[in-house]
Design brief:
This protein is of the alpha+beta class. The protein is about 60% helix and about 10% strand. It has three domains: about 80 residues, no CATH class; about 70 residues, Helix Hairpins (Orthogonal Bundle); about 140 residues, 2-Layer Sandwich (Heat Shock Protein 90), CATH 3.30.565. The N terminus is likely disordered.
């Protein structure tokens, strides 16, 4: 039997009740002791005080003492709130590098500080992602635009040979296609990120879908003489067919891109009682732990030289689609050992 850990922290409401009750009891005791002392020692006779004046004096002293105690105890609540107020102003001014650290035994205040620090951390992360997004998207658009501008300028030379002119035109077309793909992926990813559920699901043949995507890339894997090892038993799945086509298309294009000539790609469908899994494994260069850590981040590319074609959005799209379809995607890879992407969905 699991032992439940006892929470020894006192709640804010209970603490306030105890404080007020304690002050009332303490000041009452003080008033009683003062009156008792005065009456017991017959100070009225020597000081010529009357009972009413003595009682008022006792209550006044109790009030002063009680106020002093309340002030000292109240600081435990008010000072943290003042620090939280200052930190909130920093957040409002755009400074997300703030953290509230105040030692207190009050559970509610600790929870407020913990939630505030988490909020500040999330806002800082969002700000960094936004800055990275602007930087990355600027770079991704600038490169093909610069290429188009450069080759268009070269085409103005009337003395160009026909072969050179055709080469420059093809470069411009490739850069324009890269811009078009980038724009489409950004719009598609933005739409998916603002979507919280998948509609238009239907029952269809998953194995046939993967074979169809493979045929679309036949020229690419044929030119590199890549060996395909397929284990695609007849499998039906209830999902959005259009979205999953994008998943297999991105994963297979990556596998082909990073698999060397005369390499191999294994594609396997495994159907269990509770889930359906698709594994796409290549014999490429593999990934370092650092690359695996960021592989699903937007605009991230493991090849920092950008020698490989791509814009770093494909796997971000894959990850988002799989999540929307209530699936799970994992990557297994070691440098020089190839990479395996495994996508799992619950069976319906």
């Amino acid at each position: 039997m699991k032992k439940v850990k006892k929470n020894n922290q006192i709640g804010l409401w209970n603490r306030l009740v105890f404080i007020v009750f304690g002050i009332l009891v303490f000041t009452g005791i003080i008033a009683y002791l003062i009156v008792f002392t005065v009456l017991n020692r017959d100070l009225f006779y020597y000081l010529e005080f009357n009972f009413s004046f003595s009682l008022i004096l006792a209550l006044l002293l109790s009030l002063i003492i009680g106020t002093a105690i309340t002030y000292q105890v109240g600081k435990e609540i008010l000072i943290p709130m003042m620090k939280l107020n200052h930190a909130s102003k920093e957040i409002a001014s755009g400074n997300f590098h703030v953290e509230v650290n105040v030692n207190t035994r009050i559970r509610e205040i600790q929870e407020i500080f913990r939630n505030f620090n988490q909020m500040a951390s999330e806002l800082k992360s969002i700000e960094m992602m936004r800055n990275d997004f602007v930087t990355n998207i600027s770079h991704e658009f600038k490169t093909p635009l610069t290429s188009i501008e450069g080759y268009a300028t070269l085409l103005q030379d009337e003395g160009l040979a026909v072969e050179e002119r055709e080469q420059y035109i093809q470069m411009i077309l490739d850069s324009a296609k890269q811009l078009s793909t980038l724009s489409s992926n950004i719009l598609r990813l933005s739409k998916l990120e603002n979507q919280d559920r998948v509609t238009d699901r239907k029952l269809y043949r998953l194995d046939e879908q993967i074979r169809y995507v493979l045929l679309q890339y036949e020229q690419a894997w044929s030119e590199k003489e890549i060996e395909l090892k397929l284990n695609l038993p007849k499998t039906s799945i209830y999902q959005n067919e259009s979205l999953l086509t994008q998943v297999w298309s991105n994963l297979l294009s990556n596998a082909i891109k990073f698999t060397p000539a005369n390499g191999s790609i294994e594609i396997t469908i495994t159907k269990l009682e509770t889930e359906v899994a698709v594994s796409i494994k290549d014999s490429g260069m593999g990934m370092t732990p650092e690359v695996k850590k960021h592989i699903f981040d937007k605009f991230y590319q493991g090849d920092h030289t950008r020698a490989k074609e791509g814009n770093g959005l494909g796997l971000a799209l894959v990850n988002r689609i799989v999540c929307l379809c209530n699936g799970q995607i994992n990557v297994y890879s070691e440098p020089g050992q190839g990479s395996e992407f495994k996508v799992k969905f619950l069976s319906d």
